[in-house]
Each structure stands twice: as C-alpha cells, then as structure tokens.
Specification:
Elements (H helix, E strand, L loop, with lengths): L1 H35 L1 H12 L10 H11 L5 E5 L5 E4 L25 E5 L2 E9 L5 E10 H36 L11 H57 L8 H11 L3 E8 L2 E5 L16 E5 L8 E6 L1 H39 L12 H16 L5 H8 L8 H5 L1 H24 L1 H21 L3 H27 L4 H33 L1 H22 L9 H9 L2 H6 L1 H32 L5 H25 L6 H20 L3 H28 L1 H6 L1 H26 L4 H30 L1
Antiparallel strand pairs: 1-2, 1-5, 3-4, 4-5, 6-7, 6-9, 8-9
Helix pairs in contact: 1-4, 1-5, 1-7, 4-5, 5-7, 7-8, 7-14, 8-13, 8-14, 8-15, 11-12, 11-13, 11-23, 12-13, 12-15, 13-14, 13-23, 14-15, 14-19, 14-21, 18-19, 18-20, 18-21, 18-23, 18-24, 19-21, 20-21, 20-24
C-alpha cells in the first residue's frame, strides 16, 4: 500500500513540474516571437499611417511569409481585425473566418506590447497594430501548434524520468528496510498506525524533496538554454532589420532613432538587459547608452556578439542578457518546484490518512455509531472539496466562452453571474440546511447535498448557454451548501466537547488541503482537457465522494431527532440573534475574523504583490502558508483547546493574534511583514476556527434554538463577514495601505476588547 502510494505521488510530482516548465517555456517563446515579428509590425503600421488600408494591403502575403521564414516553427501568421475576423493569413482558407473560439478572444485594444493566449490546440502571440492616432485597428497574430511546446515539455519530462524512477525505487527500498526493522504490529496483531504513518510520511517527504531538487536543476538548465535560444532568435531579427536599414541609408549616421528602436526591442524581451551596436569598437547606439561603453570588448557568458553582416567594418550587435531577471526567474522556478512538491506531499498525507482509516473500519464492522468520528470527517471533506475546487478558478473564463451580450449589462457583471448564483445558493442552502439537520439529520442532508452537487456539475458540463450555466452553478451551490452544513452537523453530533473541537479542526484541515490540491490540479487539467471536461470530472469525483461517504459512514446509524425537534420548537430566530452573547460573538469575533481573512489574504494581498512587480504566484504561496497552519497546526492545537474548561479564552487568543497580524503590516508595510501577517493570520485561524465553533455550540441560545438551525445562522453570518471583507478593505484602500491595515486592526482589536468585557461580565455574574 505504501509503495503504491509512493509511486503515485512521485508520478504526480513529475507531472506537476512538467506543467510548470511548459508554462515558463511558452512565455519565453512568445517574447522572442513578438520581437521576431516586430519588423513586420512596424512595416504595417508605417504603411497604415500613410493611408494604406489594413484590409486591402498590397504585399501583405509576402510580409506574413517573411515572419514565418524568421520563425520556422510558426504554423500561421495572421492579421486580425478588431471584431475578431481574419483579414490576412498564410493559410488562405481561413481568410474571413473567426480568428479564435468564442470566449478566448483577447481585447486587442488593451494590449500594450504583446499577449500570449491559448486557443484550442494552438498558442497565439498577438501584437497590436495602430494607426497614426495610436488607435488599435487590428492585431498581428503568430500561431504556433501546441505540439511544438508539448515536444519541449516532453523533453523535460524524459530528462527528469530516470532520476524520478531512481528516487522512487530508493524510497521503496528504504520503506521495506524500515518496515522490516521497526515492529509495525502489536503483540495482539493490531497495526501501530502512528508508527506506520510517521515512517511512511518521512520517506514520502524525503523522496519528494529529492525529486523536486533533481527536477529543479533540470528545469533551471532548460530555462537558461531556452532564454538564450529565444533571445538569439530575436537578435537575428534585429540583425536582419539593421542590415536592411544600413543597406538603404548607407551608414549608421543616416539612420535616425536607433537608440529608441533598440530600447523598444530590449523592453519586449525581459531576458535582455541591453542591446548595443558597435563599429570598430566604437558605440553607435544602445538601448541603455549609459551602460554601453562597458559592454564593448568585454568577454562574458552573458554577452553575445553577432556581426551585422559578413563584410568587415559593418559593425556588431552585442546582446547583453539580464542576469538579474534570469536569476529572479530561476528563483521563481525554484519556488514553483517547491510549491508543486509540497502540493504532492499534501495529497500524499490525505490519501495515506484515508487508507489508514479504511483499514481501521474493519475493527468496527457491525458496530453502530451515533456520529462518524473525527477520523472520517477529514477524508470526506478532502474528497468532496477537491471535486469543488478543481473548477473554482476558471468559472468566469468558461462563462466568457458562452456569454451573450445583454443590453445595459457590462461584460464583467455578466461574467460574475455564475459565481454570484453559486454564492447565493450556498448561503440559502446553509441556512435551510441547518433547519433540515434538526428535522432529518445530517446524514440525510449529506447524501442529498452530494447528489445536488453531482447534478450541478453535470449540468455545468452540458451547459451551452449562459442562462443554463448560471442555473447549473446555482444547483452546484445548493449541493455545496448542503454538504458543508451536513459535515458541520456531523461534527456537532459528537458526544463530547473534545471530539467536537477535534472534529471541526479535522473538517477545516480537509477543506484547506483540498483547496491547495484542487486549485492546482484544476488549472493544469483545464489547460489539457478544456473547461467543460473538468466540470464532468468534478461530477465524477462527486460520485466518488458519495461512494466514500457510503463506505466511511456505513457503521453510522440514523440520528435521533426527537430531542432536536423539541429544541427547535422552543426557540425563534429573532430571539436567537437578540441574545447578548450571540450578538456580541457574531459582531465582535465572527464578522471581523472572516472579513480580515478574506479582505487581506484574498483581496488585498494579490493587489500588493502585483503592485510590487512580483509574480502572481507569490499570492498563491501566501495562501499556502495560511493553509499549512490550518491543515497541520489546527489539529494539534485543537487537542489542547478541546480540553479547556473555558474555550472562550482560546477565542480571545485567536482574535488577539489576528489583530496583531493586521497591525504588524500597518506598522511596517513590506513583503516580509506581509508574509508575517499571513503567518499570524494562519496561526490565529488555526486556533480560532475550531475554538469559535466549540464556544458557539456551548451557548444557551444555541442549545435552545437547536444545533442544526444555529449552525445555519452561524454559517450565514460567516459568509456575510467574508462578503464584507473586500468591501471594507476596498473602501479604506484609497486612504493608503497603512491606514487601511491600521483601521482594520483597530476595529478587530475593539471587537476583541468588547467580547472580553462581555465575557467577564457574564463570568462575574455567575460567580
């Protein structure tokens, strides 16, 4: 079992890293293609400025063929009109056709230099074409078959395969030795699960890190080679253009704007720091004139010298690679490799816990249980939420493919309709699900929610109109909300406070582990299979979740409902919200903590990363830091907080740490303090998410209303807090990031003080 899991995780690691390499290679290739087509772009714009119409352009076929000659791997070169129609193309059968599939068409007018996009089985590098007023009148589209990029990715895959196989064999050998050397079974023949888990996870983790380290070196070498090759493609194009200019003008002195031209070309290739033209060791022109003199005569592996022509005395082009950019890109590759390795490790942990639980189920065959137990909650949550998170990242993109104009409705509003429908349905299901738990039980709600989710996913796969897709996501949201409430209700059904606390921690761990894995898998699968097929896969995984629930819960009987129904009749929702403890808890703890988590981590942090000129992946890694705290620290902390006689102390500690996280960034805004704030926020929620649930279930108002209905109210308030986060942070952001974070921290801190004062008053009154 452990050996098979190791092989599966190792294969997943290599697959994830290959997908990462493919992304970097396609981006680097697009930059070189943009430069190689720059001459044709300038020629077209020059002619258009002097009255030549783009749709009736004499000599256009020859111009497009010249681009293909400069870049032999190009499949087609096209001129695209703003409405997406192909005006000119090497493949004449496509002239007059629509350039891209519906939904993948770029907004050409918004492209500053070039844009890379994937459409079907081809990659497109699109350059804007402007008239004399600067208005975009079309685009130059360079089409490359996906097989070109896939072949490069396959080369990386096969380079990494021998080392991966060796590491896997070594890992299996170490596992066998450890299993033979360390007793895995007790004298009574029972598996020592903790020993088995520790040994297996240690070997899996070390093997994964070794494979990641091996693949990192391969990927770095491949990137360096790709950067140099693609840069030289662009340099040869510059060489050809320059030689043509000299041939027409007669000398460098007769060519105007050389500095500006070189600066524009260098700006399009991030791997290039400087372009210098020299003649007889004298600088003629440079993209960065202040750094040009040092380049002449310098021998360096980062500088490539290319003759302008074969004739002596005609000069040279010096291509200076950007060591800073290439090193930063290599560091980004290293971080991506580490991220992919960690994701595969997270997946291994969850699958291993599931396998151990399946073996443990045999010991309870025929034994009736009133609740599923903490161990079953985490794998159930992981399996289900993976099916949800694999589609969450591209719902607006899929909506764009099938959207139709609606008079008076802006496109961004239309693209947000599926998410809005899903959110509204989830909130409604959470509220209704709380009351259904008290009447029918959480198990009934779980299976019903899973079936709704499968139906919504399959409808999303079949949807061909935007109305159908919006309805499909609403159905999916209902299923999601019912399952969410059912799992929370299952935890609340535990007989002891310790089990409830541990159960909520396990539920959160399963959710966030699925978030990490599902989002990463979904993005890669969407690129390979297409959006609609990933919705189908989500439905299939939903069926797997049904089967997993049937297996893991087969010993759990029906829940007794008489007590819950009796409680339900005694309380009203209005009285519940009017209760002082409930109101203070919701207003001072739940809403601030939910708002700060979403407002800072999901709304502001990506904006901060983008504004700092950093890769968007850094925002994802910040969420990973947060999730690791929830997944791995949460269960450890829960075992301690569950034993506290007064769990409100843990609620206060968590809220206090959350307040410090906001104020830390407000004190000294920087990337380091931003990550510190994320870490503190993760620590706060690793304590708070479980402690808050435990505290809430102990309140008299909760017991009076009924735990199911009360949890529905709790979930609704939590969602409202999440909604409020981006709104509050967005309103405060114009005042400056420090003021925004300081106000958020002070509001959160004020809530903590009010909650503490109210708690102290209640404790004093009881004494």
């Amino acid at each position: 079992m452990a050996a098979l899991l190791l092989l599966a995780i190792v294969a997943m690691n290599l697959w994830l890293n290959t997908a990462s390499y493919k992304k970097y290679y396609s981006e680097s290739l697009a930059a070189s293609h943009a430069v190689a087509a720059g001459s044709a772009q300038r020629t077209i714009e020059y002619a258009v400025k002097y009255g030549k119409p783009l749709g009736n352009f004499y000599g256009m076929p020859e111009l497009l063929h010249s681009v293909k000659q400069a870049i032999p791997e190009v499949e087609d070169v096209r001129i695209i009109l703003p409405n997406g129609t192909v005006a000119w193309t090497i493949d004449r059968s496509l002239r007059g056709e629509t350039a891209w599939q519906r939904g993948t068409a770029p907004d050409i007018a918004s492209i500053s230099s070039y844009k890379l996009l994937r459409d079907g089985s081809a990659y497109h590098t699109v350059l804007p074409l402007r008239d004399k007023t600067g208005k975009v009148i079309g685009g130059l589209d360079i089409v490359v078959d996906e097989k070109i990029i896939d072949n490069k990715a396959d080369r990386f895959y096969y380079q990494g395969l021998p080392g991966t196989i060796f590491a896997a064999i070594a890992g299996i050998a170490v596992l066998l030795i450890l299993f033979l050397a360390v007793p895995l079974y007790t004298a009574g023949g029972e598996l020592r699960r903790k020993v088995f888990l520790v040994l297996t996870l240690a070997v899996l983790s070390i093997t994964q890190l070794a494979i990641g380290y091996h693949n990192l070196f391969i990927q770095q070498d491949e990137y360096r080679l790709t950067a140099v090759n693609n840069t030289l493609i662009a340099a040869r194009t510059v060489n050809s253009d320059l030689y043509s200019l000299i041939a027409k003008a007669g000398s460098y002195s007769q060519v105007g704007g050389l500095h500006e031209w070189l600066a524009k070309v260098a700006a399009m290739i991030p791997e290039v720091d400087n372009l210098v033209i020299s003649e007889q060791e004298r600088v003629i022109a440079a993209a960065k004139p202040d750094k040009a003199a040092a380049v002449i005569g310098e021998e360096s592996p980062w500088i490539y010298r290319i003759p302008v022509s074969a004739d002596s005395g005609s000069g040279d082009i010096h291509v200076v690679l950007s060591t800073e950019y290439i090193h930063s890109k290599i560091m980004a590759i290293a971080m991506d490799t580490l991220t992919m390795t960690l994701i595969s490790c997270f997946f291994a942990v969850e699958i291993l816990l599931l396998l151990l639980l399946m073996t443990k189920q045999r010991e309870h065959t025929g034994r009736a249980l009133g609740h599923p137990g903490t161990a079953a909650i985490r794998p159930l949550a992981f399996i289900f939420y993976n099916s949800f998170f694999i589609t969450i990242a591209f719902i607006p993109l899929y909506m764009k493919q099938i959207a139709q104009p609606v008079p008076g409705w802006p496109l961004p509003l239309i693209l947000g309709l599926p998410i809005s429908a899903e959110f509204i349905a989830t909130a409604a299901a959470a509220l209704a699900g709380g009351f259904l738990i008290d009447r029918k039980g959480w198990k009934f709600l779980l299976y019903g929610g899973l079936l709704w989710f499968v139906a919504g996913s399959l409808l999303s796969w079949l949807a061909e109109s935007m109305v159908m897709f919006v309805l499909a996501r609403a159905v999916t949201g209902l299923g999601y909300g019912f399952v969410w409430m059912a799992l929370r209700g299952a935890v609340a059904a535990a007989p002891s406070q310790l089990e409830k606390t541990a159960g909520f921690s396990a539920l959160n761990a399963g959710i966030f582990a699925a978030n990490l894995c599902g989002c990463a898998f979904g993005a890669i699968l969407a690129d390979r299979l297409g959006f609609s097929h990933v919705f189908l896969l989500a439905g299939v995984l939903g069926v797997v979740a049904v089967a997993a629930a049937a297996f893991l819960l087969r010993n759990v009987g029906r829940q007794a409902q008489a007590v819950q129904q009796a409680r339900m009749s005694q309380g009203k929702a209005g009285d519940f919200f009017a209760d002082r403890q409930v109101a203070v808890f919701f207003l001072c703890i739940i809403i601030p903590s939910a708002a700060c988590m979403v407002g800072f981590l999901q709304y502001y942090f990506p904006l901060y990363v983008h504004g700092a000129g950093l890769a968007t992946a850094n925002a994802g890694r910040a969420f990973m830091v947060y999730a690791v705290c929830i997944v791995y620290l949460g269960p450890i902390i829960a075992r301690r907080t569950g034993k506290l006689p007064d769990v409100s102390r843990a609620v206060l500690v968590a809220a206090g740490v959350g307040t410090v996280s906001m104020l830390a960034f407000a004190w000294t805004p920087s990337l380091i303090t931003a990550y510190v704030a994320v870490l503190l926020l993760g620590l706060a929620d690793s304590i708070g998410l479980t402690a808050q649930n435990a505290y809430f279930l102990r309140l008299q108002a909760t017991q009076k209303l009924g735990e199911g209905a009360a949890l529905g109210m709790y979930s609704m308030v939590w969602k409202l807090g999440q909604m409020a986060g981006p709104i509050v942070f967005g309103l405060l952001l114009p005042w400056g990031e420090q003021i925004m974070m300081a106000v958020a921290g002070l509001l959160y801190g004020t809530g903590v003080i009010v909650f503490w004062a109210a708690r102290k008053r209640i404790v004093d009154a009881r004494c």
